[in-house]
């Protein structure tokens, strides 16, 4: 952007830096540019004004009467322009929609940071809730959240847009110290010879696992019941039992990867699908953007990490 005198803001910034420090090299260092670029800019300023602005016979440089006059106005012009840029950017952000998102813990802890970073490029504010799927469903219905990432499709609720993000199998996780003993064990052996560390039955995740076990005729004795994946993995790592979980939940607790071993879930297979849910006709563009970003992050960032953590899984986890 040019001023009425033909001087641009960048040139005035360079002039101010040299004027305040009295040195071309110090001004260049302050602005992170070359001394040559600074020298050329000062020469251009003097050519436009048709008069010197620095007395180069002195060290540090001294301003000439013309330089003093320029300095009195240059600082204000630069400050005004910086304020204008901030004002325009703030106005742009204010025009972008704020969106409230709920994510189940395992998704929020693994894919969440990358998704939030990309989504906030097009939203002025993103309020993120993490926790149990049940509370998110209630919040969506009460209009406390605008979209949720969940395993519960709310099939009995009308006017909900359901987008399938990805699917993953359930796996078993055992203590590393028990790997030789239980790596090829069947489900009966695992349940009879090692305590099952459960995910909370209050969660959709935990209830899904309980139903799966009951369908196969198993009802492991009560032991430990925990809400979060990282705590479950800590318990398994401490050789307190084994658990049934998914690759994404294991990734959430990867701090303990050296002390635990993931194996295929013995017996009948079990899978879950992660969905994005939103209300029909609301935040349509933003909901679609969040969905596409989520799938991109899963495929490019999360799946490679999972396959590195569980080499035998290969194509067992994929976009839906």
Present the secondary structure layout.
Layout: H1 9-21, H2 24-31, H3 35-49, E1 54-55, E2 62-63, H4 65-95, E3 98-104, H5 105-110, H6 112-119, E4 125-131, H7 133-141, E5 147-150, E6 160-169, E7 171-175, H8 179-182, H9 187-193, E8 197-199, H10 204-215, E9 224-226, H11 229-237, E10 243-245, H12 247-252, E11 260-264, E12 271-279, H13 284-309, E13 318-319
Helix pairs in contact: 1-2, 1-3, 1-4, 2-3, 6-13
Description:
Helices cover about 50% and strands about 20% of the residues. It contains 13 helices and 13 strands. It has helices at about 10-20, 25-30, 35-50, 65-95, 105-110, 110-120, 135-140, 180, 185-195, 205-215, 230-235, 245-250, 285-310; strands at about 55, 60-65, 100-105, 125-130, 145-150, 160-170, 170-175, 195-200, 225, 245, 260-265, 270-280, 320. The strands form four sheets. It has a six-stranded mixed sheet with strand order 4-3-5-12-6-13, with helices on both faces. Strands 10-7-11 form a three-stranded antiparallel sheet. A two-stranded antiparallel ribbon has the order 1-2. Helix 1 (about 10-20) crosses helix 3 and helix 6 packs antiparallel against helix 13 (about 285-310). The mean pLDDT is about 90.
Indicate the proportion of strand residues. 15-25%
What's the order of the H and E elements?
Answer: HHHEEHEHHEHEEEHHEHEHEHEEHE
Strand order of the largest sheet: 4-3-5-12-6-13
- Number of helices in the DSSP assignment: 13
What spatial form do the alpha-carbon principal axes imply?
Answer: elongated
Q: What is the residue-mean pLDDT, rounded to a whole number?
A: 88
Oligomer: single chain
The largest sheet is: 6 strands, mixed
Low-pLDDT residue intervals, each spanning 5 or more residues: none
Number of strands: 13
């Amino acid at each position: 952007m040019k001023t009425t005198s033909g001087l641009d803001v960048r040139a005035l910034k360079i002039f101010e830096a040299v004027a305040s420090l009295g040195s071309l090299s110090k001004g260049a260092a302050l602005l992170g540019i070359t001394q040559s670029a600074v020298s050329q800019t000062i020469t251009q300023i003097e050519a436009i004004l048709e008069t010197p602005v620095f007395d180069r016979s002195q060290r540090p440089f001294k301003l000439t009467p013309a330089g003093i006059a320029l300095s009195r106005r240059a600082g204000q012009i630069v400050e005004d322009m910086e304020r204008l840029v901030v004002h325009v950017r703030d106005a742009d952000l204010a025009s972008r929609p704020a969106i409230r998102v709920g994510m189940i813990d395992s998704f929020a802890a693994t894919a969440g940071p990358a998704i939030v970073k990309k989504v906030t490029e097009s939203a002025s504010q993103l309020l993120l809730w993490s926790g149990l799927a049940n509370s998110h469903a209630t919040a969506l219905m009460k209009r406390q959240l605008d979209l949720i990432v969940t395993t519960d499709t709310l099939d009995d609720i009308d006017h909900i847009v359901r987008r399938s993000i990805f699917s993953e199998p359930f796996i078993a996780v055992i203590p590393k110290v028990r790997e030789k003993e239980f790596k090829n064990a069947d489900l009966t052996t695992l349940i009879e010879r090692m305590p099952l560390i459960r995910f909370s039955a209050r969660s959709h995740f935990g209830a899904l696992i309980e139903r799966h076990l009951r369908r196969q005729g198993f009802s492991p004795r009560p032991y430990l019941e925990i809400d979060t994946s990282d705590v479950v993995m800590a318990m398994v790592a401490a050789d307190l039992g084994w658990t049934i979980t998914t690759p994404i939940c294991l990734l959430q607790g990867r701090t303990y990867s050296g002390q635990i071993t993931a194996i295929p879930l013995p017996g009948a297979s079990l899978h879950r699908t992660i969905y994005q849910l939103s209300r029909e006709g609301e935040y349509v563009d933003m909901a679609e953007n969040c969905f596409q970003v989520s799938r991109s992050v899963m495929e490019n960032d999360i799946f490679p990490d999972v396959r590195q953590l569980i080499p035998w899984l290969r194509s067992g986890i994929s976009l839906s």
